[in-house]
Amino acid sequence: QLQLVESGGGLVQPGESLRLSCVASGSNLRSYSIGWFRQAPGKEREGVSCISMSGSFTKYADSVKGRFTISRDDAENTVYLQMTGLKPEDTAVYYCGAPESLYYGLGPDEYDYWGQGTQVTVSS
To answer: Any residues with CB less than 8 A from the CB of 83 and at least 6 apart, and which?
Structure first.
């Protein structure tokens, strides 16, 4: 059973950067595409970025294109989300997830495994 643990969240000022980590255990990360999602209070969970099993393909939500970068290190069983130019509207709990199927995309309903989330707060 795949288990995911996120870390790296925190409180930052607008324009600053954070790097989130998603560490996998219990199964080989190479077998899964991985997605990053976020959920702000009172809002639905939304897809932020995803990376294919091979790491060759990535997708980003329009709201984060050019500011966020997803990457994976399968040797470390870890997927990263580098976030730069953070804005107050990026404030949310960030989750990583993995689908059991071969799905590759930003639809949260297709994901089966989730971490517990890490809080990102962008405020001056």
So the answer is: 17, 18, 19, 20, 64, 67, 68, 90, 120
The Cα–Cα gap between 82 and 17 comes to 8
pLDDT higher than 90, residue 99:
yes
Concatenating the DSSP letter of every residue in 5-70 gives EEE--EEE-TT--EEEEEEEESS-GGG--EEEEEE-TTS--EEEEEE-TTSS-EEE-TTTTTTEEE
pLDDT of 32-73, one tens digit each?
999 999 999 999 999 999 999 999 999 999 999 999 999 999
Distance CA 33, CA 29 (A): 8
Q: What is the pLDDT of residue 29?
A: 87
Query: Which of 108, 100, 98 minimizes the C-alpha distance to 77?
Result: 98
Looking at the DSSP assignment, which residues form a beta bridge with residue 18? 83
Q: What is the pLDDT of residue 28?
A: 86
Tokens of 104: 């590759």
In DSSP terms, 47 is beta-bridged to 37
Amino acid at site 84: T
